[in-house]
């Protein structure tokens, strides 16, 4: 009977945890998805790229909101059990309050393992996968971004202006400036003027065909120009301005660890992942990302223990609601501390000690006090 009651509580709490995670996660996801529309409306990527990029960002959202959802679901469920006298049923069936607290802590350890796995493997891989769609995108919607009388700089290093577009899709009075011809040549560029032109596709390549115009080249302070009747300008060699580089949140956990390990050995850091530059200037950010994935979930058992403190007072107590409100604010404050202290953990030794020891010491102090005072 005891086991059945405990399992029922864990099942109810976990169901609530999943429901809130999905609901809140979907709300945040929809808001982010609206912001990601810039990939289509401004950067020229197709809707397929937009959709896949948005979907693969969902694990990151769950990882970010998980501690808060864990706190809310557990806090609410214990109060609900108390108000429905279901906790009283547990006590009358011989389940001690300390046993209940231990079960809640064990439940938090399972969520802790999931949080570490989600943050260290699932979320980075999903984000890297989403970024790969940006890197491989061929700017499907670029033609729809060209507007009459408007300068377009969707392609990195290229500015395009058209004066008029007819019903057949032909452009009139075209101006194009390319500043990426010679990256090492300072102020080097190519300017194309054309009386008309149109976009076409040759194989898998997007081509801008210019008719009757002039090309002006400036390279190494030397200017040359020539006229043409017709030229083909390949757009495939250019990328959208949206970043295709791997961000720190997308770097595999093993690469972060290797970077920190080499730094701790005072060796010349030569380690390079595909995009990660392992050097002293970025070491603080790398350490912070590593701690966020692997150690920050240690706050979950502390949150679970503090949520369990609800049971030390009965709902018949006059200060029951005030006590729960104070406890709610205190736990919420600890969540804030976990976020703030993480930022200082990688910048100085004191911040690191506080971030790592605070949850362990507070957990030990609270648990020991409950045992010594025999409150449970």
Strand content: 15-25%
Question: Could you give the order of the helices and strands?
Answer: HHHHHHHEEEEEHHHHH
* N- to C-terminal distance: 21 Å
What would you report as the Rg, rounded to the nearest angstrom?
A: 29 Å
- How much is the average pLDDT? 81
Which sheet architecture does the biggest sheet show? 5 strands, antiparallel
Strand order of the largest sheet: 1-2-3-4-5
Treating each run of at least 4 consecutive H or I residues as one helix, how many helices?
12
- Give a count of the beta strands, DSSP E runs of length 2 or more: 5
Low-confidence stretches: none
Helical/strand content category: alpha+beta
Helix content: 55-70%
Q: What shape does the CA trace take?
A: elongated
Count of structural domains: 2
Q: What features would you describe in this structure?
A:
Helix content is 55%, strand content 15%. It is of the alpha+beta class. It has two domains: 262 residues, no CATH class; 93 residues, no CATH class. A five-stranded antiparallel sheet has the order 1-2-3-4-5, with no helix packed on it. Strand 3 and strand 4 form a beta hairpin. It is elongated, with a radius of gyration of 29 Å. It starts with a helix and ends with a helix.
């Amino acid at each position: 009977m005891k086991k059945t009651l405990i399992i029922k509580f864990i099942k109810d709490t976990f169901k609530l945890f999943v429901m809130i995670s999905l609901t809140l996660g979907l709300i945040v996801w929809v808001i982010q998805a609206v912001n990601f529309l810039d990939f289509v409306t401004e950067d020229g990527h197709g809707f397929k790229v937009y959709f896949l990029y948005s979907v693969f960002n969902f694990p990151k959202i769950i990882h970010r909101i998980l501690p808060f959802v864990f706190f809310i679901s557990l806090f609410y469920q214990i109060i609900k059990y108390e108000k429905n006298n279901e906790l009283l049923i547990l006590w009358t069936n011989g389940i001690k309050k300390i046993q209940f607290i231990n079960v809640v802590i064990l439940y938090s350890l399972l969520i802790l393992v999931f949080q570490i796995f989600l943050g260290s493997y699932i979320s980075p891989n999903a984000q890297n996968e989403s970024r790969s769609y940006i890197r491989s995108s061929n700017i499907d919607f670029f033609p729809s971004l060209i507007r009459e009388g408007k300068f377009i700089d969707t392609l990195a290093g290229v500015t395009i202006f058209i004066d008029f577009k007819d019903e057949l899709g032909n452009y009139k009075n075209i101006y194009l400036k390319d500043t990426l011809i010679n990256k090492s040549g300072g102020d080097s560029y190519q300017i194309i003027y054309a009386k008309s032109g149109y976009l076409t596709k040759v194989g898998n390549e997007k081509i801008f065909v210019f008719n009757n115009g002039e090309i002006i080249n400036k390279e190494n302070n030397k200017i040359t120009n020539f006229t043409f009747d017709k030229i083909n300008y390949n757009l495939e060699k250019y990328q959208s301005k949206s970043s295709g580089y791997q961000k720190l949140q997308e770097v595999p956990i093993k690469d972060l660890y290797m970077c920190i390990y080499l730094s701790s050995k005072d060796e010349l850091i030569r380690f390079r992942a595909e995009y990660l530059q392992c050097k002293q200037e970025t070491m603080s950010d790398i350490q912070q990302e590593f701690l966020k994935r692997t150690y920050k979930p240690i706050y979950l058992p502390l949150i679970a223990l503090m949520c369990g403190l609800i049971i030390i007072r009965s709902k018949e107590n006059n200060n029951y609601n005030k006590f729960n409100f104070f406890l709610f604010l205190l736990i919420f404050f600890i969540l804030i501390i976990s976020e703030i202290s993480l930022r200082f953990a990688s910048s100085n030794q004191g911040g690191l000690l506080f971030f790592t020891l605070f949850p362990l010491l507070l957990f030990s102090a609270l648990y020991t006090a409950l045992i010594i005072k025999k409150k449970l």
